[in-house]
Every structure is written in structure tokens, then in C-alpha cells.
Design brief:
This protein is mainly alpha-helical. It has 21 helices and no strands. Helices cover 72% and strands 0% of the residues. The chain starts with 16 loop residues before the first helix and ends with a helix.
């Protein structure tokens, strides 16, 4: 499969570690595709996403300088993406402004901002220089990640199908990423990447079905909020609906079937019922009950108070949140358990607002919204199918993270920031016509 990525490359004389790395970086297309494919795998299995992210970033930097035309060609290729580059630069600006206002320096917060703001244009510039058919091969990493995650979930949930204590993330974050993996795999059926198109589509379809079962086993309620959007995007990608009412009808029937499949899990039904009960309890009887839903309500109430106290610059970093929680135990805003065990608000927007103020909140909206607009424009029926597929994946990525972030901190760690940044760059490149193909078409 990957032989086509670099047809003229001669095999290395020796496979010592240093020589092998040198071999990979000389064959930069192969290195970029392999490293991108590994990102979802390490995120859903072993961890180590940050190290891999920096290896990919290094490869992208080398590609930006060594590609045909050099760095000038890279800069020129980024000219049509100024809006999304500007949007991704806002997190770092918000963090720097907030820390200057507070007279503090919090290196992890600066690194989080740098992954958005500095790494993104470098990765996008490198990906734009790669042959699109070769770049699409990175989707195989999601299939491998999906099967590995399914095996992990089955291992942890059997024999009684208990809710799995997943690695690297809590079950909510893990389930959300698994659902996103499912969606990207399902959409990739529209890509033909091998000479065996029918077998390829069958394998991808089976993988998507298996991943849906694994997602149900995680008993994640948050992910179901995004399912209608993913389903609607998929229908527009695969179907040809000339009448809006027909599209609405198909969406309604399809969602009913998906909900019925999800409801076949007794454990998931019990968790949904438990969620409704906890909402009622927290709003009426016990506002500081230490239940899953009420804990979130406590964190959100406290976050709103923090934003009201410092709306413009926030707290200055992400590590001050827990101290602010502990100061609110005496006033009954949060329970002692919440104050001692939680250091974030379980909501990405509130996390940015409390940490870095209004500019931080605007930055997060732009990180979601501007790439989503780019993908929405590329999803039009007039575009080639391969590009529309990438746009559909990009919409699922940006909308999915925005919805997931309402009740879970998806950008909790560096690894998910890395995954989001790299995938946005990857999919924008795949939603952009190949430079060589466009040049030939004009001749």
C-alpha cells in the first residue's frame, strides 16, 4: 500500500535506528503519512501522543523547507488559509495576554497555546505539499485504532459487560474519541485507496459497525448528543436528496434505529435514567450531591462565579481552578469532595473562560468555528467526491469536539489538543485540490 508513496526510493543499506530515522525523513511523504496514521492509535491505546506529535511536527518542518520550491512555496500554499491560521493563533494570544495581566508565567498553558497557534500552520504547509491520494492513506490508522480500542473495551468490560475503566482517558472522553473514530472510518468508505475497492469498502463498513458496538459498551451519554449531527452529515455525503422533507424523514428514521440499537444495552438505559434522576435531585433536593450530573452543575456554577469575578483575563492559568473551588466550599457552591478532587470544570468553554477570560472563550469559538466554515464550504455538491469526503470528516471533527466539550473537557491534556490540531491540518489539506493536479487541469 505504502510503496506508492515513494516509488523511486531505494531501500536503506542498514536498519540501525539512526539510519532508519534518516531514511524516513528522506522519504518525507512516507514519514508524514505514517506519523499521522499513528496519532489516533497512540491516543486510544498506549499514550505517548505528545512525543509522536513533536516527531510529526519535526517532519513537517523539514518538509516545509525541503519540498519543491522550498519555504517560499510553502508560504505561498498557505495564502488561501489565512483565516483559519489566524483563528488557530488566538489561543496563544489569549494565554499570553492573560498571563501578562496577572504577571505570571505558566509554561504548560503556553505550550497548549503553542500547539494550536504555532504547530498548525507548519503542519498545514507540509500536508499541502503532499500528493492527496498518498495523504489519504493515513485513514488506515483510524481503522487500526478502532479495532485496538474495541479489543481493549471488550477486555475491560467482559464477562459482565461492566462499564470499562479505559486507559489514558475516563470513559466519557474515550467513548467520544471512539465515536469520532467510527465516523471518520464510516465516511472514508467514499475514498478508494486500494486496488480492491469492494473488499476495502466491506472492511471499512464492518469496522464501523463493530466500533458502534464498542461505543455502546462505553455507556457514554455525551457522545449521543453528537450522533444526530454525524448522521445528518453522513446522509448528505452518501445520499442524493433533492427534497428537504425526504432528508428530514430519512434522518428521523435513521436516528430512531440508532437509538433503538443503543437502547438494547440495559446498562446504557440505566445510565440515561440515572442521569434524569440526578438532574431532578440536584435542582431540587440537594444542590451539592456528589453524583455525576450534580458534580458538573457544581463545577459550572463555580465557573460562572469565577468568570464574573475576572471576565477579561481569567485566572491566568489552568492550575488555579482548584484553589478557587476550595474557596467556595464554605459558601455551599461546591461540596468538599468536588473541591478536593476536580481541577477543571468539565466544559471546554468554561475552562477557557475561567483560565484566560473572554479572549480565551472567543479563541476557542474560533478554533471550532472557522475550520468548520472552511469544511462547510468544501462540502458543496459541486466539489469532487474525494474532497467532499474530507470536508465531511472535518465537519464531524469540529462539530464533534464542540459538542463533546459541553459536558467533558476534551482538551484536558496535550494529546487531544495535538490530535485536533493535526487532524484539522490534515483534513484541510485533503479538502484542497492537489497543486499539481490543478496545474495540469489549467494547461
Amino acid at each position: 500500500m505504502f510503496r506508492a508513496l515513494d516509488r523511486n526510493a531505494a531501500p536503506p543499506a542498514r536498519y540501525a535506528p539512526v539510519n532508519f530515522l534518516f531514511y524516513l525523513f528522506r522519504r518525507m511523504t512516507l514519514a508524514l503519512v505514517l506519523l499521522t496514521a499513528l496519532l489516533p492509535i497512540v491516543n486510544l491505546t498506549t499514550g505517548g501522543g505528545s512525543g509522536l506529535f513533536y516527531a510529526l511536527l519535526l517532519a513537517c518542518m523539514l518538509r516545509c523547507f525541503t519540498r519543491e520550491g522550498g519555504i517560499q512555496a510553502t508560504i505561498n500554499s498557505l495564502g488561501n488559509n489565512k483565516a483559519v491560521i489566524a483563528a488557530m493563533s488566538l489561543p496563544l494570544i489569549a494565554i499570553v495576554v492573560s498571563q501578562l495581566a496577572h504577571g505570571t508565567v505558566h509554561a504548560p498553558s503556553l505550550e497548549r497555546g503553542a500547539r494550536f497557534s504555532i504547530a498548525f500552520p507548519i503542519m498545514l504547509g507540509a500536508f499541502l505539499s503532499v500528493d492527496r491520494q498518498a495523504l489519504r492513506q493515513a485513514i488506515w490508522g483510524f481503522l487500526v485504532a478502532g479495532w485496538a480500542a474495541t479489543a481493549t473495551i471488550l477486555w475491560l468490560s467482559l464477562p459482565n459487560f461492566n462499564r470499562p475503566d479505559t486507559p489514558e482517558y475516563n470513559a466519557v472522553g474515550y467513548g467520544n474519541l471512539l465515536l469520532l473514530t467510527l465516523v471518520l472510518v464510516a465516511y472514508s468508505v467514499r475514498w478508494s485507496l486500494t486496488r480492491h475497492a469492494r473488499a476495502e469498502k466491506t472492511f471499512k463498513t464492518i469496522t464501523a459497525i463493530v466500533l458502534f458496538g464498542a461505543f455502546v459498551l462505553t455507556q457514554t451519554r455525551t457522545g449521543w448528543m453528537a450522533v444526530p449531527f454525524f448522521f445528518a452529515i453522513g446522509l448528505l455525503l452518501f445520499g442524493n436528496f433533492r427534497h428537504p422533507l425526504k432528508l428530514v424523514g430519512v434522518i428521523a428514521v435513521g436516528l430512531a434505529l440508532l437509538v433503538a440499537l443503543g437502547a438494547s444495552s440495559q446498562a446504557l438505559r440505566e445510565r440515561v435514567s440515572q442521569g434524569f434522576h440526578e438532574v431532578q435531585e440536584c435542582q431540587s433536593a440537594n444542590t451539592i450531591a456528589d453524583t455525576s450530573v450534580c458534580i458538573r452543575f457544581q463545577l459550572w456554577r463555580a465557573s460562572v462565579q469565577m468568570v464574573e469575578a475576572s471576565p477579561w483575563t481569567g485566572l491566568g492559568s489552568t492550575d488555579k481552578f482548584q484553589n478557587e473551588l476550595q474557596a467556595r466550599v464554605a459558601t455551599g457552591v461546591v461540596s468538599p469532595f468536588v473541591a478536593s478532587d476536580f481541577g477543571e470544570p468539565h466544559n471546554d468553554m468554561l475552562h477557557m473562560l475561567t483560565s484566560f477570560g473572554l479572549l480565551g472563550g472567543i479563541a476557542l469559538l474560533m478554533v471550532y468555528g472557522v475550520p468548520a466554515i472552511v469544511f462547510l464550504r468544501g462540502f458543496g455538491a459541486r466539489h469532487p467526491q474525494a474532497l467532499r469526503t474530507a470536508a465531511a470528516m472535518g465537519l464531524a471533527l469540529t462539530v464533534g469536539f464542540a459538542i463533546f466539550g459541553l459536558t467533558e473537557l476534551m482538551f484536558r491534556g496535550m494529546r487531544t489538543i495535538s490530535l485536533y490540531v493535526a487532524l484539522v491540518a490534515w483534513l484541510i489539506a485533503l479538502n484542497t485540490p492537489d497543486e499539481k493536479a490543478s496545474h495540469l487541469a489549467r494547461q
